[in-house]
Specification:
This protein has 11 helices and no strands. With 258 residues, it is mainly α.
């Protein structure tokens, strides 16, 4: 999607952002790369999807979703099902700095919803937010530095995978890591960067292949309602949360390879 010269490939990304909000953060990738045609195409995709949906759905429903439902859903959930880094940092801050008697983490099942904003202790919110800001800045900086060292792969033995595709796939991984909330089903999106990394990695690059296998295994084999999720929700959340992190690290290896 990111490799078309005219940026037309960004239209499906815009359509996906209109259908499900969380891919909308991928638009920042095109802004960071200064691919303004892709930014326009991304916006056209959103407008196209919303325009067509308005033919069958009352526009008032869209306005209500944007102004009322979306802000509610955008809160940082402390439930174990939230696999984003913000969720992990929020839970850690709650356990370490939360008031006595208020450090409870809800079990798997979404029967009890708890958000970071609802925590009474301001120190918990400040620590989690500040840590998240540092993490996001570090990941963006590291990715940008690796991008500058990258070269396009073009050899007889390996498939041609443009660096733009690898960079976009890394952005997909970062999207799931840095969002306020990332539910387990969101990790279906990781199939795209997994396939890109498998195509880009040289056959003899054992470290990258092992990293990809270890990253994909939790996302493919662990269900939140399985035995591990019931017995140890935080362990389940940690292992599933590491899947996009491992894939992101694998893409960094590919971006920095010579």
């Amino acid at each position: 999607l990111a490799c078309t010269r005219g940026g037309v490939g960004a239209i499906p990304v815009g359509i996906a952002a209109a259908v499900k909000v969380y891919p909308a953060t991928l638009g920042l990738y095109f802004v960071a790369r200064r691919r303004w045609t892709a930014v326009i195409a991304f916006s056209v995709g959103i407008g196209l999807a919303l325009g067509l949906s308005s033919l069958v759905i009352n526009p008032r429903h869209l306005l209500e979703y944007v102004t009322k439902i979306l802000p509610y859903q955008g809160r940082v959930s402390l439930n174990p099902e939230n696999l984003s880094a913000y969720g992990h940092l929020g839970r850690l801050a709650l356990v370490l700095f939360g008031p006595e008697g208020q450090t409870h983490i809800p079990p798997i099942g979404m029967n009890e919803l708890r958000t970071l904003g609802a925590v009474s202790a301001r120190s918990v919110r400040v620590v989690a937010t500040a840590s998240m800001a540092v993490l996001a800045a570090t990941m963006i900086l590291v990715t940008a530095l690796r991008w500058r060292r990258t070269v396009c792969r073009d050899s007889v033995s390996a498939p041609k995978v443009p660096r733009e595709a690898i960079g976009f796939s890394a952005a997909v991984c970062m999207c799931l890591i840095l969002q306020t909330t990332a539910w387990p089903q969101y990790q279906t999106l990781l199939l795209a960067p997994l396939f890109v990394a498998l195509a880009a990695a040289p056959a003899r690059d054992t470290k990258t292949m092992v990293l990809l296998a270890c990253s994909a295994l939790p996302a493919l084999s662990m269900n939140e309602y399985g035995r591990l999720g019931e017995m140890s929700p935080l362990l389940f959340s940690t292992l599933r949360g590491l899947s996009p992190v491992g894939l992101w690290l694998a893409h960094l290896r590919l971006l920095g390879s010579k």
